[in-house]
Amino acid sequence: MLGKEILKEFQDIVGVENIDDGDVMTNAYAYNWCIEFVNYMEDKEPIPFSPIPKAVILPSSTEEVQKVVQLCNKYGIKFKAQSTGLGPWNQPSTDNSVIMDLRRMNRIVKIDVKNLYAVVEPYVSGAQLQAETMKYGLNIHMPGAGPMASTLASHTSMAGPGFTSPQTGYSARNVLGTEWVLPTGEILRLGSLGLKNEPDWYSGDGPGPSLRGIMRGWVGTKSGLGVFTRVATKLFPYPCHTEYVLKGHSPIYDFKIPNFIRAYVVDCKNFKHLEKSFIRIEEEEIALICSHMSSYAIMAIFSYTIESLMDKIAFGSMKSPLLIVIAARTKREFDYKQKVMNHLMEELNLINIIGTKYEPESLFYAECLRTNLGYHGFIATGGFQSAKGQCDSAALCLRAEMKNKPLKQKYIEKGVIANDFGEGAWMTSYESGHFFHMEAPTFFDQTNEESVKGMGEYMKESNQMDLLKHLGVPFFIEGDQLHNHWGPHLMNYHNWLRKIKEAFDPNGVSDSGFYISGNEGDV
Amino acid sequence: MDEEEYQKMIKRCVRCSVCKWIPQVQIKSQKYASGCPAIDIYNYHPYSGGGKIILALAYEMGRIKPSEELRDIVYKCTVCGNCAVACKYMSTLEPIEIMMKLREKLVDIGCGPMPQQKTYIEAVKKVNNPYNEPHEKRMDWIPDDIILDPKAKVLYYVGCTSSYRRKEMAIAAARIMNEAGVSFNILREDEFCCGSPILRTGDSNTFEEILNKNLDIIESKGIETVVFSCAGCYDTFKVDYPLSRKYDFKVKHTVELFDELIESRQLQLTNNVPITVTYHDPCHLGRNAERYEDWDGDVVPLMPLISINIPPKPKRTGSKGIYDAPRNILKKIPGLKFVEMERIQEYAYCCGAGAGVKSAFPEMAIKTAKIRIEEAEDSGADILVSACPFCSTNLQDGIMDMNSKLKYFDISELILMALGLEPEKLKQATTEGA
Fold it and tell me: Is A179 in contact with A204 (CB distance < 8 Å)?
C-alpha cells in the first residue's frame, strides 16, 4: 500500500476512483500468464503471481502519465505501465512499484488515409483498429499475440512478428511518430512529431529526432524505459475485399469467404527443401501469410477444441509444413498470384492439401484476415510459451529449429511438456523474405507444478543452447540476469544498454525487470 | 462445477483479456468492440471475467481475505455471460461458473450477498417476491376479459416482475394467447418467485428450497408446458432447475410460442405497424438460455498433459439461445422495418439489470443501459424491442435518464398492434428492481 500522503498526491492527479491500493486490487494485478515459470527461472516459488504492486493507477492522458512518473521520481517508487496486459512482461519486479494500467487511454487519435498511418493510444486493440481501418480498405500489422493485444504496446514495447508479416512486416519497422513519457517525466516526441514547425506523425526517423534503436530496439523495453502514450503506425492496403460477413453462432461462425483468397498447406518433406521453398515463395512477393509451422500447429490452427485437433492427426505425418495464404483485391491480381503459386508448386514439387485432402472451416479465412490464428496455441494444454525467437536468415532460423528438436524431445519424454512431436516451431518471413523470424511454441500445463518447472528448465536450456551453438539471440533475453549472461558473448552490448538506461532513467524508476537496470542489482 | 474442477480451473486463466470484448472475429468497430459492462464502467482488470478468476485463485491461495472490497467487485457483475462466450470461443474455461462459485463461497462465510440483495431475499422468503409487494396482489394485473382455463395443460408462469412491475407484458401475453385460442391457466396464489434473483447472488440454499417448492406445485397439477414471458424465469427453469432436479414438462418463452402460432397461422398479423425496430437479446433468453447437456463420457489421457473427452464434452457457447424466434416475429409484422444492432445474439451487450445489480448498484445498471441505448440509436431504429421485464425496466430507465427519442416496447406489445388490438399502456417505469 501507499502511504496516505503519497496516495493523496496520486489521487490529485488521476482522481480518487482511478487509483486503488487495496489488497484485492493489487493482488489481482500481480497475476499473469507464464509468470509461474519465469518465477521458477529466477529461483522463486513457481506461482503465477509477481511481486504485489503498491497501487494500480489508471491515468487517462499523457499529462496524467507524466505527472504520475514525476511523482514516482519524487518518492523513488518504480512504475510499470501496461495496456491490454497479456504476459509476464506486464508485471512489476519489485513490491516498490505501482502499475499504470493504461486502459482509459483508448482513443484512435487519427486515421490518415492519404498518408497511410493511424495514431493510437495504448488501449486500442488490434481488432478495434483493424475494424476501423477496414472501412477505408486498409489494414494494420498485428502481432501473433492476437487481435486483443494493444497495437501501441506491440509497436513500441514488444517484439511483434505476426501472421501477415510477409506483407505487414514487424512492429519495430512500422513505428512512425511517437509520443514518449521518459522515465524522468519529460515528454519526448520522436520523428516528424518532434519537429518545431508543423509537427505531424508521418515519420518515425526524420525529419526530427530518431531514437528508434534506443526507444525499442529489436524487442522493446517492456516499460523499462518510460511510457509510450501515443504512436503512429503504418497502414497497408487490406489484402482483399473488405466486405466482412460472419453468420451463425460462436464458435464456428460461417464466414462469407472473399472471392480472392486461397490457402495452401504443403509438406516440404525436409528442412533443406523447406528453406528453398520458403525463400522462393517469398521472393515472388505474393503471400499474405507464409508461415512454417509444426504439423502439430497446423492441426491446431484448423481446430477449435482438443478433440477436433486430434481428429486431424493425419496432418501429423507432415515433416516440414508450410502454410501460405494469398489474397487479392481484384480478379486480375488474384489470377496473377494463383498463376505464380501454380508455377511455384510445380517448380518445388509441392502438393496443396487444402482442397484435396482437407477443407478448412470458412472461419479459418476470417481468422487469417483478423490475425486470430495464434490463439489456437492454447487449445492443447491451456498454456504455452515460446522458446527461441530468432530474427535472422531463413537458414539460421531453421538451424535453430533443428537443434531445438532433440532438446524438446528430451522434455517431452520427461512428461513435463506436451508432445508436439518435438517439432513445435513457428516461422514467418518479414517483408516478403527480407528476413525471418522463428520461435518454438511449447505447450505446458500451468496447473501442474512439475510441468511449470519443466518448462522453466527447458527454457533455460534452450537459451543456453542458442548461446553455445551460435543460434542467435532469443527474444526473451530480459532482465539483468540474462543480459549479464549474454552480454560478454555479444561484444558486451549489455554495458551499452545499461548506459542508455542510466542516461534516460537516472533514478531507476521505470521498472527494469524485463529490460535492464542502470545499476546492476538495482531491481 | 464441483470443487475439484473449480480448484483446477481457477489456475488456468491466461489473462489474455479476450473476456472483455465480444468474440474477436466479430468486432466491427471500435465503439462496439467491448462486451463486458463491468470492465467498461469500472476499468480495473478484476472487474472482467478473467479478473474474477484471478480473484478466485488469490482467495483460495489465501492472498486476499473476505472484505467489502472483494465483495463489491464480485457482485458488480450482471452475470450476463459475454465473458464466457468470448473466452469459450477457443478455451474450455468457465468464467461465469467460477464467479458464481466464488459468490457461493462468499455467501457461505457471510461476506455476500450485497445488503440490498439480502433485503430482497428476505422479501422473497416473506411475501414470495423480491419487490416486497403483498402476495395477494400478485394477480392484480389480470383484466376481467382474460380467459383462463382451469383444466388447461399450458401454464403461464407470470413471474414477479411482470406481475408487479411490467404488467403490460403479462396482459399482452395473456391477450395474445386468448387471441390464438391457446388454452392456458396461471398458478394464481400458488405462483412464487422463480428464485432467479436469489440464485444469481450465490445463495444456493435458499434457491434450492424455492425450486423444490415451485416444481412440487407445477408437477402436482399435471402441467405439460410452462410458458414464460420473463426471460429470467425462463432461463432459471430451463437451465438452472434441471441441475438440481429434473422435471418432465416443457418450457417455452412466449417468443417461441408466438413464433409457432404465427407460423401455424393461429395468429395472423394483419395490421400495418410502420416503425423501424431493433431487437435487444436478453442475456437470459439468449446466450444463457442454453441447457447443460448431460455428459457421461470419459476423460482419456492421450499423452502426458493432454487428455481428451470421449465422446467430446458439450460446451455451452451461447449458440443455442433463442435468437431466431423473436426475429421471425418482427420480420412478419406488416410494415415493420427490422434493423440489427452491432452486438447481437450470443455477443449482445447486456442491458445492465441482471444478477442483483439493479438493486445493489443502480448506477452501474443505468450506465450499462445507456451504452446499449446508444447502440440501438446508432442502428437507426425508432423503437427498441426486447422480451424480458428486467431489460424492459432498465432500458426504459436508461431512455428516460438520457432523454433518448427512442421508445421501448416489449415484443408482445408489437404483436398486439399487428393483431389490431390496442396495447394497454400500463407501463410503470420504476427504478425498483431485483
Answer: no
Q: Which of A226, A203, A184, A210 is nearest to A81 (CA)?
A: A226
pLDDT above 90 covers a percentage of chain B that reads: 92
Q: For B126-159, write each residue's pLDDT tens digit.
A: 999 999 999 999 999 999 999 999 999 999 999 9
Q: Which of residues 59-88 of B touch A (CB under 8 A)?
A: 61, 63-65, 67, 69-70, 73, 85, 88
Interface of B with A in 28-57 (CB under 8 A): 28-30, 33, 43-46, 51, 54-55, 57
* Residue positions counted in chain A: 523
If asked whether residues A404 and A483 sit together in one domain, one would say: no
- Using the CB atoms, write b or e for A86-109: b if 16+ within 10 Å: bbbbbbbbbebbbbbbbbbbbbbe
The alpha carbon of residue A273 is apart from the nearest alpha carbon of chain B, in Å, by 31
- Tell me: do A288 and A368 sit in the same domain: yes
In angstroms, rounded to a whole number, what is the distance separating the alpha carbons of residues B280 and B290?
17
Amino acid identity of residue B288, one-letter, is N
pLDDT tens readout for residues A333-342: 999 999 999 9
Give the ipTM. Answer: 0.95
Peptide bond into A59 cis (omega under 30): no
- Asked whether residue A51 is domain-assigned, the answer is yes
Q: Which of A175, A251, A273, A260 is nearest to A218 (CA)?
A: A175
Q: How far apart are CA B35 and CA B323, in angstroms?
A: 18
pLDDT digits (tens, 9 = 90+) for A304-317: 888 787 777 667 67
Other Cβ atoms closer than 10 A to A347: 11
The answer to whether residue A125 sits within a structural domain is yes
Using DSSP, state whether A234 is helix, strand or coil. strand
Residue A495, domain extent: 477-523
pLDDT digits (tens, 9 = 90+) for B366-411: 999 999 999 999 999 999 999 999 999 999 999 999 999 999 999 9
Is the same domain home to A221 and A273? no
**B11 vs A446: CB contact, 8 Å cut-off?**
yes
SS3 at position B425: coil
Question: Is A345 in the same domain as A485?
Answer: no
> Would you say how long chain B is, in residues?
434
- Is residue A505 predicted with pLDDT exceeding 50? yes
One-character DSSP codes across B287-338? GGGPPPPP---EEEEEETTEEEEESPPP---STTSS-HHHHHHHHHSTT-EE
B234 in Cβ contact with B228 (< 8 Å): yes
At A215, which CATH number? 3.30.465.10
Main-chain dihedrals φ then ψ at residue B81, nearest 5 degrees: 90, 0
Q: What is the pLDDT of residues A252-274, one digit of tens each?
A: 999 999 999 999 999 999 999 99
Q: How many helices (H) and strands (E) does chain B have?
A: 19, 10
Name the pTM for this structure.
0.96
Q: Residue B96 in 3-state DSSP?
A: helix
Rounded Cα distance between B413 and B168, Å, is 8
User: Residue B52 and residue A344: Cα distance in Å, rounded?
Assistant: 51
CA distance B201 to chain A (A): 20
Instruction: Find the mean pLDDT for residues B324-332.
Output: 98
**Is B262 strand, coil or helix?**
helix
3-state secondary structure A113-149: CCCCEEEECCCCEHHHHHHHHHCCCEECCCCCCCCCC
